[in-house]
């Protein structure tokens, strides 16, 4: 436990973290990778370059400081990050390294304002916070390894099938090389994939949602190829998987992880909303809900056009075979062929008025995933419609962000 004086000092630094948080975390990563380049085998280099990891860490540090006297209030955030850490292979021995470089980064950015008293308080507080993470993650490692079919760290899988789902999304079907059983998982969870593309000095790890329901003898990952754009580089791992991994090749996978998943204990109606590759965890949920005929399910997917619409035929077949499931498709820029076949329900973007026209009420559990702009729009619409916060469930692909804060500041 922290004494009152330490808590007082930490809380006094909250305004400073609001201003300098991202500068501190940017400096932290510079120091970390200079002194321990081996950690580049774990961290997402693209998120580093785009500043997303720095922003996520700054938010986490700020939250820890603001709630230092009530750390139990940030347990959900701790668990979310811990799932990521477990799937990446972050271990207890990494925490002292992180602490040392974080304190040095605070000194470097704040200069004389970082007094010995402040650094000492942060050192003590970091130790307490690190112990919380280490304890939670230790439990997750144990659970992942000891569950039926489970394992620790990474396991070798063989690609048994590779299926092009759309212009940019390809599915990879994977079975363990050791021939052993697979663990169950919660529909919506992800695995980490570790690869070392040709010409790359370090291994690269990415999380991809499992796009099939649990209980199969294979895992399925449906990966979007991230081509270079004006504001972001080409995706190293996604393009490697699309262009170089073929049937018969091997991939290293972590055990399933993640805190975004379908609550199968509830009886409420379910609305699944996705855009682009954000449909992957929701298809896992959809395929699971086939076995829950007492729950009304509406699946809504938004994409650019029919050329980019992955798993369309599968979803249509699920709807035809299950009376409790309906689906709607929204195309932002439908092609002429799309207009001729008329197999989409809305042109443009999903908005509140349209949602209210196709949904019987707001009395449902809403799950959504997709690009940040899509998620901001859906979140705003649901809040405006009066959907209770506890019925709103979402996941960011990449470092977590505060969606409510993103909506409020844009």
TrEMBL record:
Q: Site Involved in heme-bound ligand stabilization and O-O bond activation: give positions.
A: 29
What does the record give as cofactor?
A: heme b; FAD
Which residues lie within the region annotated Reductase? 149-410
Pfam families in the cross-refs: FAD_binding_6, Globin, NAD_binding_1
What processes in GO biological process is this protein linked to? cellular response to nitrosative stress; nitric oxide catabolic process; response to toxic substance
Residues reported in the UniProt entry to bind heme b: 85
Q: Which Gene3D superfamilies match?
A: Globins (1.10.490.10), Nucleotide-binding domain of ferredoxin-NADP reductase (FNR) module (3.40.50.80), Translation factors (2.40.30.10)
Domain FAD-binding FR-type residue range list: 152-263
Q: Which residues bind FAD?
A: 190, 206-209, 396-399
Which residues are NADP(+)-binding? 276-281
Q: Which UniProt keywords apply?
A: Detoxification, Dioxygenase, FAD, Flavoprotein, Heme, Iron, Metal-binding, NAD, NADP, Oxidoreductase, Oxygen transport, Transport
Q: Where is this site: Influences the redox potential of the prosthetic heme and FAD groups?
A: 84, 395
Protein's UniProt keywords contain Metal-binding:
yes
InterPro entries documented for this protein: Cbr1-like_FAD-bd_dom, FAD-bd_FR_type, Flavoprot_Pyr_Nucl_cyt_Rdtase, FNR_nucleotide-bd, Globin, Globin-like_sf, Globin/Proto, Hmp
According to the entry, every stretch annotated as the Globin domain falls at 1-138
Q: Which reaction does it catalyse?
A: 2 nitric oxide + NADPH + 2 O2 = 2 nitrate + NADP(+) + H(+); 2 nitric oxide + NADH + 2 O2 = 2 nitrate + NAD(+) + H(+)
- Active-site residues per Swiss-Prot or TrEMBL entry: 95, 137
Give its E.C. classification number.
1.14.12.17
Q: Name one GO molecular function term.
A: heme binding
Q: Which family does it belong to?
A: In the C-terminal section; belongs to the flavoprotein pyridine nucleotide cytochrome reductase family.
**Domain text:** Consists of two distinct domains; an N-terminal heme-containing oxygen-binding domain and a C-terminal reductase domain with binding sites for FAD and NAD(P)H.
**Mind telling me what this protein is named?**
Flavohemoprotein
- What is the species listed in this Swiss-Prot or TrEMBL entry? Ammoniphilus oxalaticus
